[in-house]
Design goal:
The structure is a single chain. About 65% of the residues lie in helices and about 0% in strands. By secondary structure, it is mainly alpha-helical. The protein has one domain. Helix 1 runs antiparallel to helix 2 and helix 1 packs across helix 3. It starts with a helix and ends in a 17-residue tail after the last helix.
Amino acid sequence: MSEAGPWIEAIVLFQTIRGGNQPAAKQLMDSSADKEQMVDGLMSLLGVFLKGKDPSELDRFLVAAHRFTPPPGFGTRPYLPPLS
């Protein structure tokens, strides 16, 4: 399989997660022909994205994450479109 397919899927997955549509993101993940390559692409995108963020903001986020229990399983939250 070409690396372009999973890379495009990773970009679309990132956009879908950003938009808050977990059910669609989960469906994309489940239907990927090359999940491992798609996840590799997603992790690469996430790494680049996080490099551009303020380190203190990320530190606060991680501290908060450690204080709470894990969220419900990915894809179980219903999609609620933004109010506009």
